[in-house]
Design brief:
Keywords: Cell inner membrane, Cell membrane, Cytochrome c-type biogenesis, Membrane, Transmembrane, Transmembrane helix, Transport. It is a single chain. The chain has 9 helices and no strands. The chain is mostly helical.
């Protein structure tokens, strides 16, 4: 019981701290959403605002916008804590380091991907996405975006000890993101063609379960190596 109380209290303290930091840096917190919006607008302008063309590429464009928007803030996932010494305190805390990494990753998803998930219907309307495809798009994003955050947490932990690793983070993360992008955007395209999307959704769900179990431990091990 004491262990459970310690886990809950540590998670609550970390969440409150992260929310305060997000509130103080409201401009930075809005950057992923603004980037995704700008990307959607640019695609609409580049393709001539033709409804049929935009509807055909809408799933891929929306998925790319969400993926790249999350990638913008990936390098700062643990870097601020490494610079102010918080990661050393995490390692000395009476709770598992993997637990704190998991909480921080969940907050990263909540502050970057969740607003985009809520804005997906509006972005879909801008790209003339058929409304019948919207439930599949939202389901794929709900399964895929946490998976992207967990994979990104491992990559960010591997590079936390390096300076100016923004490009390196992108180079390491993007190849790992490709399967999620393929199954996420492909499920919406398959739904548009009248195909069954259960297989793609189950693969995303299986990947998410594995990532929830393994990614925090892998990221915690990478942080220990980087700090030692």
């Amino acid at each position: 019981m004491d262990v459970e109380v310690g886990l809950i209290q540590s998670a609550r303290a970390l969440i409150v701290r992260d929310l305060r930091l997000v509130w103080r840096r409201r401009g930075d917190a809005l950057q992923p959403a603004l980037f995704a919006l700008l990307m959607v607008v640019l695609f609409a302008l580049a393709l001539g605002n033709e409804p049929a063309t935009l509807a055909r590429v809408a799933p891929a464009v929306l998925w790319l916008a969400v993926l790249l928007a999350g990638l913008l803030s990936l390098d700062s996932l643990f870097r601020g804590d490494a610079e102010d010494g918080s990661l050393e305190q995490w390692m000395l805390a009476p709770v598992p380091l993997a637990w704190l990494v998991g909480v921080r990753t969940a907050m990263h998803w909540a502050t970057t991907a969740l607003p985009l998930l809520l804005a997906a219907p509006l972005l879909g309307e801008m790209l003339h996405l058929p409304r019948g495809q919207l439930p599949v798009l939202l389901a794929s994003l709900a399964l895929g975006t946490p998976l992207l955050s967990l994979i990104g947490a491992v990559v960010a932990a591997l590079t936390v000890g390096m300076r100016r690793s923004g490009i390196l983070v992108a180079l390491l993360a993007l190849p790992l993101y490709v399967p999620v992008l393929v199954f996420g955007a492909g499920s919406v395209t398959a739904a548009a063609q009248g195909h069954d999307v259960a297989g793609a959704m189950l693969l995303l769900a299986a990947g998410l379960v594995l990532a929830v179990l393994l990614a925090p431990m892998a990221a915690a091990a990478a942080i220990r190596i980087a700090l030692n």
